[in-house]
Write a structure and sequence with these properties.
Blueprint (H helix, E strand, L loop, with lengths): L4 E10 L2 E11 L4 E5 L6 H8 L7 E6 L2 E2 L2 H4 L2 E4 L11 H12 L6 H7 L15 H13 L5 E5 L7 H16 L3 E6 L2 H7 L2 E6 L2 E7 H4 L3 H8 L3
Bound molecules: adenosine-5'-triphosphate.
Adenosine-5'-triphosphate binds next to strand 2 and helix 1.
C-alpha cells in the first residue's frame, strides 16, 4: 500500500549543528506513528520539514507518493506549536476565526467540538478552559476540514495526568476512525501505549523504525536509542 509519508535521506543543519542526519523511513496509512527521542534529538525539526515549514539541507520526501505541495498538505491537520487562540472569545468563535484563516472547515465546527468532547463547553470563553481542554481545542482546530492525516508535536506535553489520558484516548479514537496520526513524543511509555509504529531518533540519527511490537521489544534498540527518553 502507498505510504502516507516517505522520508528519503533527510538531513538538516543549523549552521554547525546537525539536527538530522540521513533519516529515512515510511509511515503506513492508518497507523499511529510515534517519533520518539529525547529533547534535542530532532523530532520538531523532522515534523517542520515534513510540513514544509523548514527546508531540509539534503534529501527529499513524498506525501501520498507525490512531491509535497500546498494542495496535498490540505489533507493534513497540524498541531506543531500552541495556536494563538483569543482568550476572551468562546471555543466556537475561536474555531470560526481559525477556519476563516485556513479557508476550510467552517461547516465542521460542531462536529470537531463533539469529537474532542468540548461541545457542551462550546460557548465558554477560552480563558475558562483547563490546559487539557485548551489542548483538545487545538486538536479540534487541526481537525477542521476533516484531514486524513494529523501531525502533532508532543501533544501531551505540560498536561496533568487527566489531560494526558484524555488526549491519548482522543488520538486512539481518531485512529480508530481511520486517520493516520504522526506524533512526536519523548516518552517511551506514551509511544508504547498509543502508537502502532515508531521511529527512534537520537542526536539526529535514526536508530530504528517499524511496528512498535517489533521495535520496542528489542532490548538493544531500546537501550541504545531510548536510554535517555
Ligand atoms: P525538543 O523536544 O526539545 O523540541 P526535538 O527532538 O524536537 O527536541 P529539535 O527541536 O528538532 O529537537 O532540535 C534538534 C537540534 O537542533 C537541537 O540540537 C537543537 O538545539 C537544534 N536546533 C533546533 N532549532 C534550531 C534553530 N532554529 N537554530 C539552531 N539550532 C536549532
Amino acid at each position: 500500500m502507498t505510504p502516507v509519508l516517505a522520508l528519503n535521506t533527510i538531513s538538516k543543519n543549523y549552521g554547525p549543528i546537525q539536527a538530522l542526519d540521513n533519516v529515512s523511513f515510511t509511515v503506513p496509512k492508518g497507523c499511529v506513528f510515534g517519533i520518539l527521542g529525547p529533547n534535542g534529538s530532532g523530532k520538531t525539526t523532522l515534523l517542520g520539514i515534513a510540513m514544509d515549514v523548514l527546508r531540509a539541507s539534503a534529501g527529499n520526501l513524498r506525501w501520498f507518493d507525490q512531491p509535497s505541495s500546498a494542495e496535498l498538505r490540505k489533507q493534513i491537520g497540524t498541531l506543531l506549536e500552541t495556536p494563538n487562540f483569543y482568550h476572551y472569545l468562546t471555543a466556537v468563535q475561536n474555531l470560526r476565526i481559525t477556519a476563516e484563516i485556513k479557508q476550510r472547515g467552517l461547516d465542521d465546527i460542531d462536529t470537531v467540538l463533539k469529537k474532542v468532547n468540548l461541545y457542551e463547553r462550546r460557548n465558554s470563553k477560552f480563558t475558562t478552559y483547563s490546559l487539557g481542554m485548551k489542548q483538545r481545542l487545538a486538536i479540534a482546530a487541526a481537525l477542521l476540514g476533516n484531514p486524513d492525516v494529523l501531525v502533532l508535536d508532543e501533544p501531551t506535553n505540560g498536561l496533568d495526568p487527566v489531560g494526558i489520558a484524555e488526549i491519548r484516548n482522543l488520538i486512539k479514537q481518531l485512529a480508530a476512525e481511520g486517520k493516520t496520526i504522526i506524533m512526536a513524543s519523548h516518552l517511551l511509555d506514551e509511544v508504547e501505549k498509543v502508537c502502532t509504529h515508531v521511529a527512534i531518533l537520537k542526536k539526529g540519527k535514526l536508530i530504528a523504525a517499524g511496528a512498535v511490537d517489533e521495535i520496542l521489544v528489542n532490548e538493544d534498540v531500546v537501550e541504545i536509542g531510548a536510554a535517555n527518553i
